[in-house]
Write a structure and sequence with these properties.
Shape: rod-shaped
Number of helices: 10
Radius of gyration: 44 Å
Number of domains: 2
Structural class: alpha+beta
Helix content: 55-70%
Order of helices and strands: HHHHHHHHEHEEHEE
Length: 411
């Protein structure tokens, strides 16, 4: 025969007590029955009620022990009525012990509001019972009644409160540790991404110039089949290959940070712009480009290394873009320093016809320049513009905040 499904109500958590609660309930009930059978009562003779009535509060408290985790506040409310009823019978010590456990469970497994309220309530009840019995009997033995009341109500509530606070503190500490570990992992991932972006910028800025020159002159050598053109193009290709290889070795040395045979080399500075423009003059001779440097920085100016590197790379990338796309004409590089700001400007002809081959662009150069300027809290403008005479140019202008470090040196 097929098994009939249990009613939906029987699947409620109230009807699925914890295994330990079942053992505790059964054990307490059996212990109370043994005490009752042996005639060991906790109260004096109650001639008005038969002895078997003592079993009623005992069974009620044993049933509530099954709910000490799933419905702790309900179990405590019913258990309180049961322990009060037990005072009018012959009494059973097992009933008293189960009530103390229900108080403890209500604090540990109950709501946060109940966990805060029950210790205060049981403490006030203990105090009221003590004072009440003292006023009624005027006998020091009344203090004993107050102590017993405190032992079965306030003491379990206080113990449960301490345990719950320790558990909540442990959970909070574990959550903080997990959050700290998560934040550390996020910081590590962000650091890796930032380092990869920095490496990508350095790699692009160091190699793109040389590879662009190689692409332009190799295209010229293939399209213009004359011995002079091929010889000059091969010379430029070889020079750029050697310089590009040297730049790559420098980058590898920086990444190795001095380990093994890799020796880090100093980062390029603005003092190397003359050599950079001389190189660009060689590369752009066939394209009708001329290169001019206007350095209006004050003498003895000392800029932070990150600012010098960023300015150098911006000029280098701008010259590379001019070699790729600019029309014949002057490419002007200007530097100025005022109000603790370094201004870097590169202009090149824009919009005209360009003789000779062009090298393709990916747009990564402008992205790299913007990233460098953003890291220094600066400003970058890049786009077409027009001079007073109507000549169209492409202008890159960067404003880099920078302190003059030479002013901070002791005299």
């Amino acid at each position: 025969m097929p098994r009939l499904p249990l009613p939906r109500s029987l699947h409620h958590p109230l009807f699925q007590p914890h295994r330990d609660d079942v053992l505790l309930s059964v054990g307490s009930l059996l212990g109370g029955l043994v005490l009752w059978f042996l005639g060991l009562y906790s109260q004096g003779n109650r001639h008005l009620l038969p002895g078997w009535v003592t079993l009623v509060p005992l069974c009620v408290l044993a049933a509530m022990e099954l709910l000490r985790r799933t419905a702790p506040q309900f179990a405590l409310a019913v258990g309180t009525l049961g322990v009060i009823a037990d005072q009018f019978t012959w009494g059973n010590i097992a009933t008293i012990i189960m009530f103390a456990d229900l108080v403890y469970a209500a604090v540990v497994y109950g709501t946060p509001q109940a966990a805060r309220r029950i210790p205060i309530t049981t403490g006030m009840v203990t105090l009221a019972v003590t004072i009440g019995f003292l006023a009624w009997s005027r006998d020091p033995e009344a203090l004993l009644v107050g102590m017993v009341t405190g032992l079965i109500s306030f003491a379990p509530a206080l113990t449960g409160s301490i345990l719950r606070n320790h558990r909540e503190a442990a959970v909070a500490a574990r959550l903080r540790a997990e959050q700290t570990a998560l934040l550390a992992e996020m910081d590590r991932a962000q650091a890796v991404v930032a380092e990869r972006a920095r490496m990508a910028r350095e790699l692009h800025d160091m190699v793109a110039n040389h590879l662009s020159a190689i692409a332009i002159h190799s295209t010229a050598a293939l399209s213009i089949d004359t011995p002079e053109t091929s010889s000059r193009a091969l010379a430029v290709i070889r020079e750029n290959s050697v310089q590009g290889l040297a730049e790559m070795r420098r980058l590898i040395g920086l990444l190795r940070a001095g380990d093994g045979d890799g020796r880090p080399t100093a980062a390029p500075t603005l003092d190397g712009l003359e050599a950079l423009l001389a190189q660009s003059r060689t590369f752009g001779a066939d394209s009708g480009l001329t290169f001019v440097l206007d350095d209006a920085r004050p003498a003895g100016l000392g800029l932070p290394t990150p600012v010098e590197l960023a300015a150098y790379r911006i000029v280098q990338e701008s010259l590379t873009n001019a070699l790729k796309h600019a029309s014949p004409g002057p490419v002007a590089v200007s530097l100025a320093y005022a109000d603790r700001t370094l201004t870097v400007s590169v202009t090149s002809p824009f919009g005209g016809e360009r003789p000779g081959p062009r090298a393709p662009g990916s747009g990564a150069g402008l992205v790299g320049m913007q990233e460098r300027v953003t890291l220094l809290d600066g400003e970058l403008e890049a786009g077409p513009a027009a001079l007073d005479d109507g000549t169209k140019i492409w202008q890159v202008r960067a404003l880099l905040p920078a302190e003059n470090e030479s002013e901070e040196l002791p005299t």
